[in-house]
Amino acid sequence: MISQMTIILDNNTYKYETEATVKLFIPAVRFEFLYDEHDAEGDVIITRMKKCSRYVYFYAYIRENGRVMRSACRTETGKFDVKDGEFTMCRLLFLLLCRFYGIKPKWGLLTGIRPVKKVNLMLKEGLNESGIRKEFTEKFFVSEEKTDIAWRTAMVQKPLIGDFERKTVSIYVSVPFCPTRCSYCSFVSHSMESAYKLIPEYLDYLCRELEILGEIVDTYGLKIDTVYYGGGTPTSITADQLHKIMKKTAECFDLSKIREYNVEAGRADTITEEKLAVIKEMGATRISVNPQTLNNEVLKTIGRKGTAEEVLEAFAAARKLGFDNINMDLIAGLPTDSFESFKSTLDRIIALDPDGITVHALTLKRSAGLYQDGRENIKNPASMMVDYAIDELIKHGYDPYYMYRQKNTIDGLENIGYAKSGKGSLYNIYIMDETQTILGAGCAASTKLVDENNYISRVMNYKFPYEYIRRFDELMKKKDEIREFFEK
Fold first, then answer.
1. Phi/psi at 247 (nearest 5 deg)?
2. What values do phi and psi take at 300, rounded to 5?
3. What is the mean pLDDT of the chain?
4. Does residue 72 contact residue 93 with C-beta atoms inside 8 Å?
5. Residues 128 and 173 in one domain
6. Is 322 among the domain residues?
7. Are 41 and 22 contacting, i.e. CB atoms less than 8 angstroms apart?
């Protein structure tokens, strides 16, 4: 099994899409990129483009462990443009790699993270269902089953997308702390052991940023649609600390007409009745209790403290307090997990009757501990797990309502949020469809500004708590970019 591949881009600059296409077939491998070379030692992929007076020629070549395969095509020079050239090259490379490895990724040539957004764009362009399905399957080589789940998700979203006034915004609040760091995690989150001393000061600055965003909302007559507390694990902090920032949120923004208030309660080992009571008292309407798996041995393997029994207890406590919209996250493809174990977890979660279930496929991010052992995690039953989840959840009345994909996900799979009717998260839809402005507070939070033409600009906060604290005044000057946006 190879550990490194050289990719040569000869007379083209299609690096991003070429890399994304290659990763569909050989994930968790280091790539070395060379430009305008003709060959290299060892394992190599070459994409070459040559323009002549009448034709533009495209050429793709792979050599791995001494085995060689190549392919070529051409297009008329008069019909050539850069974007079409990029697609033609990637299509040629994709078909070559399908033949070379004897596999065809189910999402085909779709390497972007928002397949449903592509469906929605096609609908706006006037394509009907059959036209969209044909584009997916014939142009992008997407399988029938993935095309179907993308279409289903788009149809669930359709009544919700755009169903808000242009002056509405959502609020994201970052609490980037966790009891421990899970081996699959790539978020900018910090274990309580390493960051405990920072928490009080961090929360003070977070409250100050909420005040500044509140002033912007008031100045420009904005209305709050949804609120989302994420991280990290927001319930890692104490009940009093949670009350402090949720109270500040209520003081800074008019929440009387919001449609959704999410708190990622997340890990069961951080959930207490006291914290749940605070969340309920402060007006949250939706929470997540995320087991990832109900197999205690797998939980130990990924470095996640807590047990399946604690998950069940936390869920019961939340129901007892009156939470009627609870989501639970699972991950397909965790190290040492088997199909039978995943099936048992999903069946038990469905029996609990939560209002939403999100199924993520394991992603090997470079900043996650699992990435170093990435090749060991590739051949696992994640695809079987995801297929089983789709069938079972739809059968039990859970509709797919949002979807996204990530780089380095095993088998090129997807993450899908399922929910019972009326229980899907509006915030999750908006963050994926990119149709609503979202104001972010806290470290690693991103403010996403969406104008009337759906042009998106971003204002990023610093990633780490110590940097967020130390450079807070400098960071707050960037809020002028938000003010300028609303001035227009």
1. -65, -40
2. -65, -40
3. 91
4. no
5. no
6. yes
7. no
**101: pLDDT strictly greater than 70:** yes
Report the CATH number at residue 49: 3.30.160
Residue-wise pLDDT tens digits, 203-252: 999 999 999 999 999 999 999 999 999 988 999 999 999 999 999 999 99
Residue recorded with tokens 């788009």: 154
DSSP type of residue 272: -
| Residue 462 maps to a domain | no
Cβ distance 437 to 452 under 8 Å? no
Instruction: State whether 85 and 175 are in the same domain.
Output: no
Domains of the chain: total: 3
DSSP state of 379: S
Shared-domain flag, residues 29 and 120: no
User: Nearest 5 degrees, angle CA 272-CA 319-CA 295?
Assistant: 70
**Pair 60, 188 in one domain:** no
How many Cα atoms occupy the beta-carbon half-sphere of 415 within 13 Å?
21
Sequence length of the chain is 488
Assess contact for 334 and 302: CB atoms under 8 A.
Answer: yes
Q: Is residue 282 part of a domain?
A: yes
The answer to the question of residue 488 being in a domain is: no
CB atoms within 10 A of CB 77: 12
By the 8 A CB rule, do 258 and 250 touch? no
Residues 144 and 218 in one domain: no
Phi, then psi, of 211 in degrees rounded to 5:
-60, -45
Q: Residue 370: pLDDT band by 50, 70, 90 thresholds?
A: very low
In which domain, by residue range, is 145 found? 115-157
Clarify whether residues 152 and 175 are in a common domain.
no
Q: Give the helix ranges, DSSP H, for 321-448.
A: 339-352, 382-395, 426-433
Are 12 and 56 found together in one domain?
yes
Q: Read off the amino acid at residue 12.
A: N
For residues 451-472, average pLDDT: 93
- 71 and 151 co-located in one domain: no
The last residue of a domain, from among 441, 458, 474: 441
DSSP per-residue codes, 114-141: -HHHHHHHHHHTT--HHHHHHIIIIIS-
Which regions of 237-317 does DSSP assign to beta strands (E)? 260-266, 286-289
CB 330 within 8 A of CB 304: no
Contact 364, 375 (CB under 8 A): no
- H/E stretch holding 173 reads strand 168-175
Pairing, β 177-178 against β 30-35: unpaired
